[in-house]
Amino acid sequence: MSVPGSKVWRSFRRNRAAMGSMLLLVLMCALCFASLGWTVDAMRRPSLSEVRAAPSTTHLLGTDELGRDLLARTLYGGAISLSLGLLAAGLAVVIGTAYGAFAGYVGGRCDEIMMRIVDVLYALPYMLLVMLLTVSLGAWLERWHVVGTEWSRFIVLALAIGCVSWLTMARVIRGQVLSLREQPFIEAARAMGFPTGRILLRHILPNLIGPIVVFATLTVPQAILQESFLSFLGIGVQPPQATWGSLAADGVRLLNPIRFDWWLVVFPCTALALTLLALNFVGDGLRDAFDVRAART
Predict the structure, then answer these.
(1) Which of 77, 102, 260, 270 satisfies CB 3.0 to 4.6 Å to 242 for a cystine?
(2) 100 vs 59 pLDDT, higher one
(3) DSSP label at residue 69
């Protein structure tokens, strides 16, 4: 049985950490996406006379090795990182929900085979799969000119991360469907002769909103962190695009004992850490709010 939306909101609102984190996320997203036009213009007009300048009133977060404003680069990188995380999480939710719901509802040998496939995929090195998909799909998109070179790596990263992040979602949804399909309202729908697709969409899926929302919220930071790690290794998005991971990698590359330009690392990493922390707090708050047993008490 699902928890009514009003009770979910009241429970979530009582969680101060989750509410504060949600406000921080809204502010972060508003700043990153609303300033895209300004950030692109700022990055296209670098000031060579202010290369690697420290934070000042002119450049609040300083400049990078090409004289580009780091505030503009950080906001632009945040928009790319957040977009990629949302796309990858959305893809993982769609695949995992469809796969797990079908396996749990059909049951029998089909369920066993589908779950063994999930077990095999779980046994494979996760990050290695993402790297292989990124390299192979990226080369294919660039060879056939499906999209521009600037956006091909972005699309490939979202597809690769999303296509290997749905396994846990499939298991969670399958477990929920296994319990739901024995409920009286599902048996009544079967007795009335409703097709499987209608039962899944009209009767089972609405009762899965809680797990889906919670999983999606917790998958976004995972996708952003994976993208940042890949960009840090140099196989993420390519210049002139930037993400928080690639900005941190550029800053680490420029660190040396002679000149310590701390702002090149601190500000992108701080934005990334605050966003990941806020997403995890929101996910925990939603998990508690959608908990039926907690709602009853």
Answers:
(1) 77
(2) 100
(3) B
The single residue listed with the structure tokens 């996708």 is 223
Q: Which amino acid is at 235?
A: I
Residues 54-83 pLDDT 10s: 888 888 888 888 888 888 889 999 998 999
Radius of gyration of the chain (CA): 22
Tokens representing 263? 């702002």
Number of neighbours of residue 34 by Cβ within 10 angstroms: 12
CATH homologous superfamily for the domain 5-46+63-296:
MetI-like (1.10.3720.10)
Domain ranges of the chain: 5-46+63-296
Q: DSSP characters for 210-240?
A: HHHHHHHHHHHHHHHHHHHHHHHHT-SS-TT
* Cα–Cα dist 144/139, whole Å: 9
Q: How many residues does the chain have?
A: 297
State the CB neighbour count (10 A cutoff) for residue 44: 10
Listed as own residue / partner, the contacts of 120-124 with beta carbons closer than 8 Å and 24 or more positions apart are 121/164, 121/167, 122/167
Cα end-to-end distance, the chain, whole Å: 15
- In this structure, are residues 166 and 132 in contact, taking their beta carbons and an 8 Å threshold? no
Lookup result for tokens 């959608």? 290
User: What backbone torsions phi and psi does residue 216 show, to the nearest 5 degrees?
Assistant: -60, -40
Question: What global pTM score does this model have?
Answer: 0.84
Mean pLDDT across the stretch 251-262?
80
